[in-house]
Amino acid sequence: MAQTMRPTIAGSLLATDHKRHLLQDALLAVTLVLGATAFITAQFHSLHLISSWTGLLGIITGASGQFISETTRERFGLILGLGASAFGFFLGMSQGGLFGGLIG
């Protein structure tokens, strides 16, 4: 019955190895924030510069986080952030791009 006496680790939802992953969690948080920012600002035509740049940065951080992620929780959050970042990036690109029509 030693199994019932083990303490549960707080915040280990879907963290299957019960270890701390500081770099992966930081990339997860950054990707989610950039993805949310890109997704929200993509809804406004005048904010296409913000949505395209934050989307691009979110795609880069999310992809690098996927390479080093170790748990299901990290991968799940990174995929959500990547999807939101890609949506914001592509919509921002269709509305004016990274440089806002300054080139050309």
Can you offer a commentary on this structure?
The structure is a single chain. The protein is mainly α and 104 residues long. Helix content is 62%, strand content 0%. It contains 3 helices and no strands. α1 (22-41) packs antiparallel against α2. The longest helix is centred in the last third of the chain and has 24 residues, at 72-95. It is elongated. The chain starts with 21 loop residues before the first helix and ends in a 9-residue tail after the last helix. The mean pLDDT is 86.
Question: Which secondary structure elements does this structure contain, and how are they paired or packed?
Answer:
Elements: H1 22-41, H2 48-68, H3 72-95
Helix pairs in contact: 1-2, 1-3, 2-3
DSSP strand (E) fraction? under 5%
Biggest β-sheet strands, sense, barrel: none
The average pLDDT value, as a whole number, equals 86
Number of strand elements: 0
Low-confidence stretches: none
Oligomer status:
single chain
What count of helical segments does DSSP give?
A: 3
Which sequence of SSEs, written as H and E, runs from N to C? Answer: HHH
The coarse silhouette is: elongated
Q: Would you tell me the structural class of the helices and strands?
A: mainly alpha
Radius of gyration: 18 Å
Distance between the termini: 72 Å
Q: In percent, how helical is the residue content?
A: 55-70%
Keywords:
mainly alpha; 104 residues; 3 helices
